[in-house]
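Protocol step 4 of 6: record predicted structures for both targets in the notebook before any analysis. Target 1:
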Amino acid sequence: MSLRNPYGDFEITDPQAMRALAHPVRLAALSWLQKNGPATATRLSEHVGASPSVTSWHLRHLATFGLVVDEPSPDGDKRQRWWKAVARGFRYEMPDTPEGAEAGRLLRTEMMNQSLETTQRWLAETEPNLEPEWSRVAGSANTRLLVTAAEAEAIESAIEELLAPYVRRRDAGQTPDGARSLRLIRLSLPEATD
């Protein structure tokens, strides 16, 4: 595992792939597959807000960048095309070129939009029904740091190293009794200089 990728995420380096993934249906489809496992376009369509044919088109587009691949049908039915994500997550660094930076910003924007939607849905649908012990561990913070760019990168690396064993434990078959999925949405927002 790379120190810069302790989760084994799919690393996106192609700005065209970033631009492709910045589409709301594609990002939602990939996110659903990463969380829930393989699905057909028909099954996935109800979760991404698109028709099965449109969802299928978007999945084929994601496949051109290696983000999803065909998966054999669980029941051997060759009439249905199943898709799976190639990794549980993805990551990218902001490219240096103007075209690449634009693609990275588009993807970042869509990721933040979907994170905000996820948070609002959680507040409306999940949080009111949580058991008290889970409600207590649902955290929120808004902390301002004074750091250099190198320190900010070191903080991000330290957080990822801390989280890596919890991210990878399902694949290792080490999920303890009572464990449940917890989504940790991290936003690091460097502020403008005065």
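Target 2:
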Amino acid sequence: MSEFGDLKVSDSLTVPAWELSEAFVRASGPGGQHVNKVSTAVQLTWHVDASSLPADIKERFRKLFASRMTNDGRLVLESGAHRSQLMNRQAVRERLAAMILKASVKPKRRVATKPTQGSVRRRIAAKKRRGEVKSLRGSVDRGDE
């Protein structure tokens, strides 16, 4: 099947087919009696550290999806939502492509700014008002005792 060759993430990013390994397992969910006979769910395994992606993208990928990776740097994605093995293969590959695309976007550098004088003044005034409200909550002192 030519559609399951290299995984094209974007115009400049492609994951070669040899880096991806697929295993087919039995899926739970829709399928009735058919579900126990065929292996339609797909487990896609990709070794992130050994991949041919640029180092900066791999690093961002590891940061973003560290909780979904194994200790040896492999990502295992599973799809069993569809009855068809073909559709599950497409779904899991689309999910991987979306994850890589998300990791390929460089985050914008934060530019440190100072608060304006007006905002500082308003913040201090609000704190003083709040302090006055809280100070009025103290015990009531009766003068007739």
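Step 5 preliminary note on target 2. Helices lie at 55-64, 85-104, 117-135. The longest strand covers residues 41-47.
Proceed to step 6 after PI sign-off.
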